[in-house]
């Protein structure tokens, strides 16, 4: 398997509070990797660091074999995309929202039109092009954000609790979209979730994050059947752990 | 004559003046719109980049600059008029510009008055754009320039409102332009009304001079036009505020 991210001894502190502690991890191209843990353990911070929205306090972050500085982040960000728990929606049409990533890359109008239609089809929003994005429901807005994130076929898609505020029907649609993105576009997907059942349904490998520490990284099967760590076992079985 | 008759007669004459398109009244209206409109355009062109520079950079003295902008929003017009007057009088440091008692001097005074207003309201509009919008631009591979453009688009209604607030303020302003413009109209009476055609006389300054001469109907006519203009600007501003 080809290594995409390598994280070595990475820590992150805000003022004097250590949010992430000595994280070691490799993430491979084409896999769905899930950071799992309760709220407030550093999952979002770790995703933001992987997306170069924040810098680590210490340690190394190697992407595609290279260690980048914050000044070089723009060239890397062009190959990634991140979805937030609550998607930010531009105050314009669905078409303009979805097309955004291609417009800033200078793609020609005809190609943009075709790709927007394809992306909206993929997320089940065909025919929504002219609708004002701010009028979409929560589930539709999240699906539109998926279309916007994948339209330029990023190498990596980072998902921060992508279904946290959605009803079961929309959760099922989003999970189906995640699986289709991986199978149809071979995109590496890294997600943060506290939803054990969702991680079990869609992830290949799982990292359990508790109190800023990555206590176990393993395949989904291993984590859910024979976890190596007592705290992993306790978390998966619904015990309150901090 | 009772006070009601006096007012009624004034109003009737005023409407006659407005609807007969009196050249004196028209020239005053044109000068008002030209001076305030030009000042608003130049101020907006200055204020928007300034608001973005303050919002998107971490320059030293940023907080002091914001305080300066906020202070500028409440500048007393007569004080601004006095300062501009002292600068542009023939013996002043900007006397070589030869703009004393001209429309250019009035534009300069209004520019100083309304630039902080447009900057301050634009700053608030930019600040109201959620951080998640800017982060989304970055996560989609956008540069800082793309983030600025996206913010401009998101804050567009607020920024338009800022420009309209500046225009409304400029149209209603009297103290500064009276000092630096001189309230001049070309001599010679047209149709028995007023003093010919306006040079630096605006709706507000004309109201002060016409009222002092007891030309009440002319004052009311000018007032009706002024209120109509300011009201139109405010209705537009409210429309954009609702859309924001």
How does this model look, in words?
With 242 residues, chain A is an alpha/beta fold. Chain A has helices spanning 43-50, 73-77, 94-103, 109-122, 138-150, 168-185, 196-202, 220-225, 230-236, and strands at residues 3-14, 17-28, 32-36, 58-63, 66-67, 80-83, 156-160, 188-193, 205-210, 213-219. Helix content of chain A is 36%, strand content 27%. In chain A, strand 7, helix 6 (168-185) and strand 8 (188-193) form a beta-alpha-beta unit. Chain A is globular. The mean pLDDT of chain A is 90. Chain B is mainly α and 244 residues long. Chain B has a single domain (3-10, 23-243), classed as Orthogonal Bundle (MetI-like fold), CATH 1.10.3720. In chain B, 74% of the residues lie in helices and 0% in strands. The relative contact order of chain B is 0.18. The mean pLDDT of chain B is 90. Classes of the chains: A alpha/beta (242), B mainly alpha (244). Chains A and B meet through strand 6 of A and helix 6 and helix 7 of B.
Summarize the structure.
Chain A has 242 residues and is of the alpha/beta class. Chain A is built from 9 helices and 10 strands. With 244 residues, chain B is mainly α.
Characteristics:
heterodimer, A: alpha/beta, Rossmann fold, six-stranded mixed sheet, four-stranded antiparallel sheet, globular, B: 244 residues, mainly alpha, MetI-like fold, 11 helices, 74% helix, 0% strand
Shape of chain B: globular
| Mean of all residue-level pLDDT scores of chain B | 90
Low-confidence stretches of chain B: none
Query: Could you say what the CATH architecture of chain B is?
Result: Orthogonal Bundle
For the record, the CATH architecture of the domain at 3-86 and 155-236 in chain A stands as 3-Layer(aba) Sandwich
Oligomer: heterodimer
SSE blueprint:
The complex is a heterodimer of chains A (242) and B (244).
Chain A: E1 3-14, E2 17-28, E3 32-36, H1 43-50, E4 58-63, E5 66-67, H2 73-77, E6 80-83, H3 94-103, H4 109-122, H5 138-150, E7 156-160, H6 168-185, E8 188-193, H7 196-202, E9 205-210, E10 213-219, H8 220-225, H9 230-236
Parallel strand pairs in A: 3-8, 3-9, 6-7, 7-8
Antiparallel strand pairs in A: 1-2, 1-4, 4-5, 9-10
Chain B: H1 3-19, H2 23-56, H3 62-72, H4 77-88, H5 103-127, H6 131-139, H7 144-154, H8 156-172, H9 175-181, H10 203-212, H11 216-243
